[in-house]
Design a protein that fits this description.
By secondary structure, the chain is an alpha/beta fold. It contains six helices and 17 strands.
Length: 287
């Protein structure tokens, strides 16, 4: 089994780095910390970056997890290869572009591109929103596409230290540390990231953001509301290249004891996604 410390960041292909920078700084409130001809790095907390856009095809998504053991990359890659999982090492040049010491990659059964990083670069300066106060405290979690939730759930449980916090219908909400979830598997037709979450400090930050989005004519696709699973307040909105972004306070629910925690099964109904009655305009959340 491979032990993961945390989900670290996401890398997304786009044909328009200018639009990516404008949206992520002016709308989301991330800090643009480095841009080249091919890459844009955006900060939201203590890591070098939480989101990176690179010149490529929209839908080309990479998800990075940090390994628990910074000396464990070779062992992890041997394990993946021995388990018959498609995998490989990143090159030194690719590691430099990712701001990590080294990494390997693998494909999950749906075909998602997942990377295992060791010694990723930390921020040497605090996160400062590029244009306005946001209340962002850091990168939170992702929704990850799956073409077979049970198969992919079992893949993560068998090969990694992932645990289930709750289910909504067939979709498991999974964690590799003690906060509620770092990724959730949502059924759809192919690989990719379903949504990107950043955490904010208070519900006030969410409500202020509603008016910010309305002023900029950005479509809100769900919320504001409160999740039945984690108890967190949330807001989902439409992003670049069809990506859904989320702000929430959901990752504060602590799983205190893995041995005694019992995952709960919620029905695939609108009320399971929002206690307040907000209806999601998100295909993967449809009941």
């Amino acid at each position: 089994m491979i032990e993961l410390r945390d989900i670290h960041c996401v890398h997304l292909g786009t044909r328009d780095l200018d639009a990516a920078e404008e949206f992520c700084t002016e709308i989301v409130g991330l800090q643009s910390i480095k841009r080249t001809d091919t890459h844009l790095y955006l900060r939201a907390g203590k890591r070098h970056h939480s989101v990176c856009y690179f010149k490529g095809e929209p839908g080309d998504h990479r998800i990075a997890f940090e390994l628990m053991d910074w000396k464990g990359l070779e062992k992890a890659m041997v394990y993946l290869k021995g388990s018959g999982i498609e995998c490989g090492y990143g090159t030194d040049a690719e590691s430099e572009l990712r701001f990590t010491h080294a990494f390997g990659w693998f494909k999950d059964p749906t075909g998602n591109h997942i990377e295992l990083w060791v010694r990723p670069t930390e921020a040497n300066r605090p996160y400062h929103p590029s244009l306005r106060p946001t209340g962002i405290t850091g990168f939170g979690h992702i929704g990850l596409n799956t073409t077979d939730p049970l198969r992919d759930q079992n893949f993560w449980l068998e090969h990694f230290n992932a645990r289930i916090s709750d289910w909504i219908g067939p979709a498991p909400l999974l964690r590799v540390k003690q906060t509620h979830h770092q990724f959730a598997l949502f059924p759809t037709s192919g690989p990719g990231i379903q949504h990107i979450n950043h955490q904010v400090d208070t519900i006030d930050d969410l409500l202020k953001f509603v008016y910010h989005l309305q002023e900029r004519n950005i479509k809100i696709v769900f919320g504001p509301g409160r999740h039945a699973t984690s108890g967190g307040y949330f807001l989902y909105f439409e992003g670049l290249d069809g990506m859904v972004y989320e702000f929430s306070t959901s990752d504060r629910m602590i799983i205190e004891d893995d041995a005694t925690h019992r995952p709960r099964q919620f029905a695939l109904e609108d009320e399971s996604f929002c206690l307040f009655g907000s209806k999601p305009d998100i295909a993967e959340f449809a009941s």
